[in-house]
Amino acid sequence: MQGLFVKVASYFHIFVDVIGNYNIAFRQISPQSKYCKVVAADDWLYPDCLEKMVALAEEHPSVAMVSALGLEGTNVAHFALPYYGDVLPGHEVCRMRLRLGAGSRYHFGTPTLLLFRSDIVRSRHAFYNETNLHGDAEVCFEFLSHNDFGFVYQVLMFSRLREESMTAVSKNLYTYYPEALYNLLKFGPQYLEEKELTYRIRELYRAYFRFLGKQAYYRRDNAFWSYHRQKLAEMRHPLTTSRIVAAAVSYALDQILNPKRTFEEALRRVRASVSGLPR
């Protein structure tokens, strides 16, 4: 396989963030390489990962990128696709992603799970958008409109969980609502019908503000609120104190008027906390 595949190591650079660091690494790939793959420092690949992914891409030249299942700690994650076969039309994959909720963040896979054809990586100086924490998902929307998406239905990657990881940061700030809105506003006109897009935007904003109203009761720190205030401002939907208060009151009323759902949510939290206790 020598000459066919080039692995991209993540070069350490103190002046750039993770996404910028990936772009620096991407620019080091050989002009002769056919496939390119990130392996983040916290992750590792199963021995047959490259073999399986490259074999699928070689069999289907229309595939621009290949993903797979992965382990996140002890849980199988990165699974959001129904089984339609190993190759799916990229346009349909993107449509499915835009129609899902904000928590469906592994629809394409993490950077370590994605294998790219090197020609799309070399097509521009900065492959990932460095202003977007989820730039790895953004490139999928950009390059799958006229290409296919390959998926290996096997666990081929392991991700170690730690508090400083990008996944942990995303979960703590819950960056998935801003990401979902950004993708919907930017790529929705390309992949969705006008009425469907209008409905999805309205539905997502409603869910986003309900989420923020709920967080008002959890003593979130300034970093959390600053992040969401900045992201909503970028999308011309400013988050003011009055909007947070209104969302918090709306959430409280919803809990009071729906006691059954309130009880079920409380029960789920109790079960989750008990399941994490040592036995």
Task: Write a short abstract of this structure.
The chain is of the alpha+beta class and 279 residues long. The chain is built from 11 helices and 8 strands.
What this model shows, in words?
Strands 1, 2, 3, 4, 5, 6, 7 and 8 form an eight-stranded mixed β-sheet that branches. Helix 8 (194-215) packs across helix 10. The chain has two domains: 5-161, Alpha-Beta Complex (Spore Coat Polysaccharide Biosynthesis Protein SpsA, Chain A), CATH 3.90.550.10; 168-273. The protein is of the alpha+beta class. The protein contains eleven helices and eight strands. Mean pLDDT is 82; it is low at 9-13 and 272-279. Helix 1 links the parallel strand 1 and strand 2 (35-38). It has helices at residues 18-26, 49-59, 90-98, 118-121, 135-143, 166-173, 176-191, 194-215, 222-234, 241-257, 259-275; strands at 5-8, 35-38, 43-45, 63-72, 75-77, 87-89, 115-117, 148-159.
